[in-house]
Design brief:
The chain is mainly alpha-helical. It is built from 2 helices and no strands. The protein has a domain at about 25-80. It is elongated and about 55 Å long. The structure holds zinc ion (ZN). Zinc ion binds near residues 8, 10 and 13.
Length: about 90
């Protein structure tokens, strides 16, 4: 799941600008997880009228299902915070 290209195929952007660069993406992932938690809680409580056990189960299933996507999204978000797109990089 953590495998990724060393550089962008289009512009040559280095996807690993420094060692342990993606540790910071854990904070981004945490933010996304909290947002999903709140969304699932509101949907479960007010739309589907689930009890707390149902909400916890729905939350667990949702987080397991979105974990791979969230992992990649967090890394992409973190990289985009620090690396700006340069269309002339490879020319
Ligand atoms: Zn690129």
């Amino acid at each position: 799941m953590g495998n990724m290209h060393k550089e962008c195929a289009v512009c040559g952007c280095d996807y690993n600008p420094e060692p342990s660069f993606y540790y910071g993406s854990m904070y981004v992932s945490y933010g996304y997880t909290v947002a999903i938690f709140v969304a699932v809680f509101i949907l479960g409580k007010y739309i589907f009228n689930l009890d707390i056990v149902g909400i916890v189960i729905a939350l667990g299933v949702t987080l397991v299902l979105v974990a791979p996507y969230l992992f990649r999204l967090s890394r992409a978000t973190w990289l985009n915070l620090f690396v700006k797109y340069n269309p002339d990089a490879k020319k």
